[in-house]
Write a structure and sequence with these properties.
Blueprint lengths: L1 E7 L2 E6 L10 E9 L2 H9 L8 E2 L4 E8 L11 E4 L9 H4 L27 E3 L2 H4 L1 E2 L6 H6 L3 H12 L6 E5 L3 H12 L4 E5 L3 H10 L3 E3 L6 H8 L5 E6 L6 H8 E9 L24 E4 L6 H12 L9 E6 L4 H10 L6 E5 L3
Parallel strand pairs: 9-10, 9-12, 10-11, 12-13, 13-14, 15-16
Antiparallel strand pairs: 1-2, 1-4, 3-5, 3-7, 3-16, 5-6, 6-8
Length: about 350
Amino acid sequence: MKGFAMLKIGEVGWVEKDVPACGPMDAIVKPLAVAICTSDVHTVWEGAVGERHNMILGHEGCGEVVEVGSMVKDFKPGDRVLVPAITPDWNSLEAQAGYSMHSGGMLAGWKFSNFKDGVFSEFFHVNDADGNLAHLPSNINVVDACMLSDMVPTGFHGVELADVQFGDTVLVVGIGPVGLMSVAGANLRGASRIIAVGTRPNCVEAAKGYGATDFISYKNGTIEEQVLALTDVKGVDKAIIAGGSVDTFSSVVKCLKPGGKIGNVNYLGSGDVIDIPRVEWGVGMGHKQINGGLMPGGRLRMEKLGALVASGRLDVSPLSTHVFEGWDKLPEALQLMKDKPADLIKPVVKFAD
């Protein structure tokens, strides 16, 4: 089979590999559509997870099952499926402790394009198929289905980590595709006010549609100055970091009320140390919590989030601004995500309807 791979840090290209073997609990899937993630860019051009040689990229997509192992009960060849970016080993001790995304070690539930070949290939392997795949609802198209791999569950996990409650004032830093889903998730959870940090016009318009009430631009001063001005110096109840860098935390801590919570789902691809301002953190006693986590994967989460889209409660179509067709478009789509033109939110490549 062919696949589009990271040849080494800073270099990508096509490779030929054997079709992966299917274990007794596993499935082999062919992609119907795949999406490009900023994480793919971090992995290739920043070397964020270290050197990888000839590793097939991609962790976002949906597909059709072509083979299942002898112990798989709920899926069969021909089934169209949602595929989460995070595919834990559900019998691991970490999963039993409630942290399935770290099964086998920190971040080890993230297997595609990290520890094993990803989904940018004619066929890909899914471990523990009954625990990680979900049936694709018939009224969700393949482009929208790709958003359920990572963007929706990651954005919503930021909302969970920040513990957004009814009536909260919420800050969302970064309104790319993950941040937009954090806005949508905070809105669904009952936030009374959602302050979004971002400047690209198409992202601002999408954020308005998802429930953002106020907007902040990096060009108009620091985040904390603008948030405190908007909130009469009270600050926000909760904050979600879905963009920025290691330096973003300092500003967001300054925006929080005592007892406030930060949920970080931003992939920090560079930098060594996160700065927490001593005084604004309450000299260590301000009950300002910082939670950072890799989104949970698994079938149950995919089914629940898929139900939100299938029922019309969540419209993910604004995320997919650039849709390509055919394998030959994958390199162009990846380069587009690297360059991030002003009109881009998310590129998708589809191979079937």
